[in-house]
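Supplementary material to the annual report.
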Amino acid sequence: MAVMTILKYPDERLRTVAKPVEQVDDALRGIIEDMFETMYGSQGVGLAATQVNVHKRLFIADCSENGNEPLTFINPEIIERDGLHENEEGCLSFPNVYAKVERAGKIKVRALDKNGDTFEREAEGLLAICIQHEIDHLNGKLFVDYLSPLKRDRIRKKLEKEARLAAKLD
Ligand code: ZN
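Predicted assembly:
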């Protein structure tokens, strides 16, 4: 297993639209294992393949309290949504940035698991938010896209400044 590099905003590769996975095989499962190591190592609750520069329709999540419920979603599709909820979100591609985003409160998702079998799952609360956030990533969409251009610009400047500082320290 290996920790992967997480792309940070405003890296343009985060805007890539991911392609459907055609085959769930050992190579893909290897990527998934590395993604879990990367996500858990960063204290994240979700990670889309796009964020580690793999442009396949795949994301992982673990929204459980104890971090012991790893979930894999391949070629995910939201087939039902219900209600609206505003929640504060963060993202591993936006270190220390949090913002309120409105999303469906309850959803039903259909996807393939890591064995290539189709499953459906209903979700609410943090997992529902997470699934919607990660599917956005696969479409090249970011949570700051829901904010005003002014707020988004402020976040971009903050992250660019931090990246410059980090580069100097390296
Ligand atoms: Zn994210």
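The chain has a mean pLDDT of 96.
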